[in-house]
């Protein structure tokens, strides 16, 4: 979904990753600058829309949240349909969530074109004292899989906007060059 209608762009971005890595909080931080300490996984797909300016143009960004579906390994193909960007999220304080990244990439690849802009996100970087995944491990995986890489904290609002903006800018470049 990278349409230009009436001079306006609409980009669909999906957020994927294991349960409780902070996907919903990254989204609420991005869309409303809010953090929720007691976020309960609600079931069913949800998305939020934000207008972001890129090179003087308004880009409408629709960010989709799995909203708990991932707990049942039941993220449907409808969730991925039309996506032009993806944030693949793990929790730097829980190694198993990092080990799941390859599986999430496989799933993304079965549903989406390889041109989809991808960002590997190591969330909860505020939890340095209980870190289980080093920055280098994240970087290396991103290099191997040709992904952007960033560490974020939805809690402290570190790099959250930046993570979305890098992806949005790359999508914009690809759309302008008609790659997407
Ligand atoms: P989701 O299941 O991936 O959508 O994860 P949530 O956004 O619901 O977050 C799961 C839990 O992690 C919640 O208790 C959040 O408060 C907490 N959390 C999310 N992001 C961060 C973060 O950046 N730092 C810390 N310390 N906790 C976080
Ligand atoms: Mg959630």
From TrEMBL:
Keywords: GTP-binding, Lipoprotein, Membrane, Nucleotide-binding, Prenylation. GO terms for cellular component: plasma membrane. It is a lipid-anchor. GO terms for molecular function: GTP binding; GTPase activity. The keyword Repeat does not apply. The chain holds residues 1 to 180 of 215 of the full protein. Belongs to the small GTPase superfamily. Rab family. It is found in: Cell membrane. It comes from Dorcoceras hygrometricum. This is Ras-related protein RABA5b-like. The keyword Membrane applies.
């Amino acid at each position: 979904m990278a349409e230009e209608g009436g001079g306006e762009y609409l980009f669909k971005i999906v957020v994927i990753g294991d349960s409780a890595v902070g996907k919903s909080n990254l989204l609420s931080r991005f869309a409303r600058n809010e953090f929720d300490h007691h976020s309960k996984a609600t079931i069913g797909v949800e998305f939020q829309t934000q207008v972001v300016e890129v090179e003087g143009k308004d880009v409408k960004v629709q960010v989709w949240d799995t909203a708990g579906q991932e707990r049942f390994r039941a993220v449907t193909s409808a969730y991925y349909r039309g996506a032009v960007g993806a944030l693949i999220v793990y929790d730097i304080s829980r190694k198993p969530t990092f080990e799941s990244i390859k599986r999430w990439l496989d799933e993304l690849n079965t549903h989406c074109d390889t041109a989809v802009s991808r960002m590997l996100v190591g969330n909860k970087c505020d939890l340095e004292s209980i870190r289980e995944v080093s920055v280098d491990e994240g970087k290396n995986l991103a290099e191997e899989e040709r992904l952007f890489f960033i560490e974020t904290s939805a809690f402290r609002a570190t790099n959250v906007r930046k993570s979305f903006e890098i992806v949005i800018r790359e999508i914009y470049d690809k759309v302008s060059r008609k790659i997407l």
